[in-house]
Amino acid sequence: MSEYNFDEIINRTGTNSLKWDVRDGELPMWVADMDFPTAPCIREAIEKRAAHGVFGYSDVPDEWYDAYFKWWLKYHNLKMEKNRLIFTTGVIPALSTAVRKFTTPAEKIVIQTPVYNIFFNSIINNGRRVLENRLKFEDGAYSMDFEDLEKKLSDPLTTMLILCNPHNPIGKIWDESTLKRVGELCAKHHVLVFSDEIHCDIVEPGREYIPFASVSEECRMNSITAVAPTKCFNIAGLNTAAVYVPEEGLYNRMNRALNTDEVAEPNAFAMDATLAAFSDEGHEWLEALNAYIEENKKTVYEFIENELQKVKAVRQDATYLMWLDMSSYTEDSKKLQAAIRSKTGLYLSPGSIFGKGGERFLRMNVACPRSLVIDGLNRLKTALNMG
Questions:
Q1: Going by DSSP bridges, is the β-strand pair 27-28/346-347 parallel, antiparallel, or unpaired?
Q2: Which spans in 215-311 are helix H?
Q3: In terms of Cα–Cα distance, which of 222, 230, 220 is closest to 186?
């Protein structure tokens, strides 16, 4: 029995919550934001910092670097170097900076759809063009289409690939051979890899994600990796992340770019929260969290198998975002999502926002007390039975 009470329902209304800014009676299970309070050690660190009462400009101490180094070496078998790690306020700000620094307007950037929808924003808003390498979906499982990937990487106007590892929304940890092949193809065609690894610590108990930069020297020297405690410890509002850039020339350019964009300075709580997250106490909480999320996923699998046989839940090994195949009900997930919300108040993400291959899917966030997961499943059943 965990000492942490993940079953407790925290009322988030009236807190300016993006997720919970909904109508009365609605149940939001869309945006990737957990409904659990963060680890006690993080809360204690923030409370201690708040008690000091002075919130001036902050610096990045050596302890911050050490926390990342020890965590990634101990849990992910990746050795980082201090002069290759840079603080940044968030993964997406870092991605947008990299897009502006390492590509030019009208060039093409490859993303592997269905994928995190904000990738589209970072590309399009900066005047670059999206090139979709659609993932293969066969027998309920996803894999990369390497023939199509190489075709798109070989385009002379393709200069960057954005990798999602683990992949959101499909909840997949890419294996070593897959990552190695991606690294080989990108090096062959002189395409830089930006690897978003923000979901890396939300994994099925007993599983481990593989950092792209750890796979080979080829991957290491042709990549920028974005990491953070924010998604896994539910502290996204604190704006604390990092990029790891092993190659010296890329590091120098990325460091300058982040500072030019003014997204390389921490707020008053960013350091203390990160140090607490990447501690033994933080890891203990994280293990309990992953065990709880895994049980929530099992609840979804069992409910769908027993009550909603026409829905197929894609089997996952990472993230807390369930990917539901609704192809028996719709070819337009946006319309289906709107109908479900209108009928029952259940608010899911339509798969179409994640690009090609998502048109018949819905994404459900199960990082919440189990009673809310069951509530959401019953609402989904009610909506689908209403036709």
A1: parallel
A2: 217-221, 230-233, 248-260, 270-277, 280-307
A3: 222
Statement to judge: residues 265 and 339 lie in one domain: no
Counting every residue written for the chain, the total comes to 387
141: amino acid identity, one letter:
A
> For residue 258, what is the domain's CATH number?
3.40.640.10
Helix, strand, or coil here: 139? coil
**Spatial strand order in the sheet of 321-325:** 312-313, 321-325, 361-365, 349-350
192 forms beta bridges with 160
Same-domain pairing of 342 and 252? no
Q: Which domain holds residue 335?
A: 27-39+283-386
Dump pLDDT digits (tens) for 170-191. 999 999 999 999 999 999 999 9
Beta carbons of 160 and 222 less than 8 angstroms apart: no
Model pTM score: 0.97
260 and 373, same structural domain?
no
Six token digits for residue 182 = 């991606």
